[in-house]
């Protein structure tokens, strides 16, 4: 039961690798020469160096039975469009071709709810919903949509590919961190005096890892499964963090025009002056949308667990508090 994993050094990938090892799988993980390997230290994992767009990638996959393609480039900066398309879209196309050439029996592709898009303000959407690509905010979301189309096209051509769409995971090993982890870190550092009126679907990252394994075992080829749990406003999440930590939650919401204006100046003006921007405009635009999802299909068909978010938040707080993410 040898599996090939991309993105194993990241947040979801590190939790998935641990679950696979626990369940008796042998793991071979693709890492870039520049990858930070902290999340895999001490694990019995075979590391192979390479790149998603390597034409000989299939040779690295020989002897593996399954593929978990978790890796993706994440950036909300508008200048990174070409990088996003090369890693996320072309990289997904290439690894699916490589998987077929290497004789991989089944691939689980990690998409994102970013590829699905959002419904009208405050509405909850499921796998049957799809925003038109032109309405997806930012190049990251567009790249994930196009990458998912590559996976669907491969499935239509007869390749055994199952697609999972995680929402916003919470928990340990969020090393970069992700946008959700950044919220938790800023809260812990008392760098969040205000909040934005927005909402997200949250899930324990270990449930996301379990959802990947369940997709391998039970998923239907060509289907996508939202891996999510609870829809919360950002204020509700911050209030839960306040209960866990004893720190005060911000009480005042920012009007949307203020961070949008700051981000526009930051990214459009300061970059022209040779300065590094700190607030991505697309990130602020995303934050003004309510991103609520219904994961009942994955619960019903795969048995996706719905673990307590309070436990996930506590574990994330403990992990960030340990200082591991700052190394």
Automatic annotation (TrEMBL):
Alphabetized InterPro entries for the sequence: Epimerase_deHydtase (IPR001509), Hopanoid-assoc_sugar_epimerase (IPR017829), NAD(P)-bd_dom_sf (IPR036291), NAD(P)-dependent_oxidoreduct (IPR051783)
GO CC annotation, single: cytoplasm
Annotated ranges, domain NAD-dependent epimerase/dehydratase: 3-228
Gene3D superfamilies named in the record: NAD(P)-binding Rossmann-like Domain
Top-rank taxon: Bacteria
Family matches, as Pfam families: Epimerase (PF01370)
MF (Gene Ontology): aldehyde dehydrogenase (NAD+) activity
PANTHER family linked to this entry: NAD(P)-BINDING DOMAIN-CONTAINING PROTEIN-RELATED (PTHR48079:SF6), PROTEIN YEEZ (PTHR48079)
Protein name: Dihydroflavonol-4-reductase
Species whose genome carries this gene: Chlorogloeopsis fritschii PCC 6912
């Amino acid at each position: 039961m040898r599996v090939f994993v991309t993105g194993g050094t990241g947040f979801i990938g590190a939790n998935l690798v641990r679950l696979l090892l626990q369940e008796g799988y042998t793991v071979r993980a693709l890492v870039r020469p520049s990858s930070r390997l902290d999340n895999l230290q001490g694990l019995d994992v075979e590391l192979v160096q390479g790149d998603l767009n390597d034409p000989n990638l299939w040779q690295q996959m020989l002897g593996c039975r399954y593929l978990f393609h978790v890796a993706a480039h994440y950036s909300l900066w508008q200048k990174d469009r070409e990088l996003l398309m090369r890693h996320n879209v072309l990289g997904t196309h290439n690894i699916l071709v490589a998987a077929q050439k290497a004789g991989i029996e089944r691939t689980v592709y990690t998409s994102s709810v970013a590829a699905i898009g959002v419904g009208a303000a405050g509405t909850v959407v499921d796998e049957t919903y799809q925003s038109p690509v032109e309405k997806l905010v930012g190049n990251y979301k567009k790249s994930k949509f196009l990458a998912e189309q590559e996976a669907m096209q491969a499935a239509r051509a007869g390749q055994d590919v199952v697609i999972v769409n995680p929402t916003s995971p919470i928990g340990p090993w969020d090393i970069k961190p992700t946008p959700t982890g950044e919220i938790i870190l800023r809260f812990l550092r008392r760098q969040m005096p205000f909040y934005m009126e927005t909402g997200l679907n949250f899930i324990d990252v270990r449930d996301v890892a379990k959802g990947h394994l369940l997709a391998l075992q039970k998923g239907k080829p060509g289907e996508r499964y939202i891996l999510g749990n609870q829809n919360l406003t950002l204020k509700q999440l911050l209030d839960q963090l306040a209960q866990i930590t004893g720190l005060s939650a911000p009480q005042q919401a920012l009007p949307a025009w203020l961070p949008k204006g700051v981000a526009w100046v930051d990214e459009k003006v300061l970059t022209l002056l040779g300065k590094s921007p700190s607030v991505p405009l697309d990130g602020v635009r995303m934050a003004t949308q309510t991103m609520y999802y219904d994961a009942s299909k994955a619960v019903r068909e795969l048995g996706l667990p719905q673990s307590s978010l309070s436990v996930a938040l506590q574990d994330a707080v403990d992990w960030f508090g340990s200082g591991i993410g700052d190394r």
